[in-house]
């Protein structure tokens, strides 16, 4: 009796996966170095070693590339939010969260700037950025509500409003981190730890 030849399964990423990854890698570098308008589809295709026609097989538009990159960044930010799962002030976890997210912000400052520009004309990218902010605010508000319920956080201001204020404080400070030194980044984190702790839990 003849034995069936076992099917050969592909091991590792396909050629298409590698090309898509190459486009994203090139795009991340270019958007870090140039303005959104200064990066063209021809630049991205050439940098990835493919033709302009081949580029459209993977991404329909330049904002679609940014959306893919920002999805990765958004997930990285969400993974850094360890303070949101804690109880009470937990300043060390807040510091850990802010240090991780501030570092991500500095590393992706150019990409974030380009995304803000492109979002004006790209609904999918605009939706992603909006959902990312909503997810952050919701997790912050949920933590604050738990802490208000156990009496550690102030109840003078609604949790949702406090979460929005934290988000505004963070963004205002992080927007100045492009090109910041490690010392400047750590100073920004310490400023935010102090401000957020006082805002949510009062002077201690």
From TrEMBL:
InterPro entries: DNA-bd_HTH_TetR-type_CS, Homeodomain-like_sf, HTH-type_TetR-like_transc_reg, HTH_TetR, Tet_transcr_reg_TetR-rel_C_sf. It comes from the Bacteria. It holds the Pfam family TetR_N. The keyword DNA-binding applies. One of its GO terms (molecular function) is transcription cis-regulatory region binding. Keywords: DNA-binding. Residues 40-59 bind DNA. Residues 17-77 form the HTH tetR-type domain. PROSITE patterns: HTH_TETR_1 (PS01081), HTH_TETR_2 (PS50977). Signal peptide: none annotated. This is Putative TetR-family transcriptional regulator.
């Amino acid at each position: 009796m003849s034995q069936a030849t076992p099917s050969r399964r592909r091991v590792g990423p396909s050629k298409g996966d590698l090309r898509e990854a190459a486009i994203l890698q090139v795009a991340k570098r270019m958007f870090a170095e140039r303005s959104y308008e200064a990066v063209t589809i021809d630049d991205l295709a050439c940098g990835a070693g493919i033709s302009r026609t081949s580029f459209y097989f993977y991404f329909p538009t330049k904002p679609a590339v940014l959306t893919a990159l920002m999805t990765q960044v958004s997930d990285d930010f969400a993974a850094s939010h360890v303070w949101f799962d804690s109880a009470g002030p937990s300043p060390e976890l807040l510091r850990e969260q802010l240090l991780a997210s501030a570092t991500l912000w500095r590393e992706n400052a150019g990409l974030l700037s380009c995304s803000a520009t492109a979002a004006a004309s790209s609904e999918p990218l605009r939706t992603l950025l909006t959902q990312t902010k909503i997810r952050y605010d919701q997790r912050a508000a949920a933590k604050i509500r738990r802490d208000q319920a156990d009496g550690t956080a102030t109840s003078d201001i609604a949790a949702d409003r406090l979460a929005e204020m934290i988000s505004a404080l963070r963004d205002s400070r992080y927007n100045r981190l492009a090109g910041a030194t490690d010392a400047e980044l750590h100073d920004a984190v310490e400023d935010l730890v102090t401000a957020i702790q006082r805002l949510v839990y009062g002077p201690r």
